[in-house]
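// run 5 | inverse folding | seed 20
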């Protein structure tokens, strides 16, 4: 196995891992945030070295405002308060003679 094949495999692996993480964050946000919070808390422990505590603080998920419509999260594009929501109109069938 050449160096090129090793580097190629690593790059493809990183791309696949990033895609899986992205899909997991979209499909299972509570589970991923819980796991991320647990990891961040274990790294932020005062017994850890300074660099690990900084990584733990960086990994700490941001506090959410409770979710649901009107929270301003704009992640599902279904709330009335979402400015990016496109207005949908029912189909109108007209008979042309």
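// decoded
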């Amino acid at each position: 196995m050449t160096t090129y094949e090793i580097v190629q495999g690593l790059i493809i692996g990183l791309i696949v891992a990033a895609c899986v993480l992205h899909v997991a964050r979209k499909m299972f946000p509570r589970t991923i945030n819980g796991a991320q919070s647990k990891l961040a808390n274990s790294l932020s422990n005062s017994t850890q070295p300074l660099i690990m505590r900084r990584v733990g603080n960086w990994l700490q998920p941001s506090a959410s405002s409770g979710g649901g419509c009107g929270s301003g999260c704009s992640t599902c594009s279904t709330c009335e308060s979402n400015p990016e929501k496109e207005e949908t109109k029912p189909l109108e069938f007209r008979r042309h003679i």
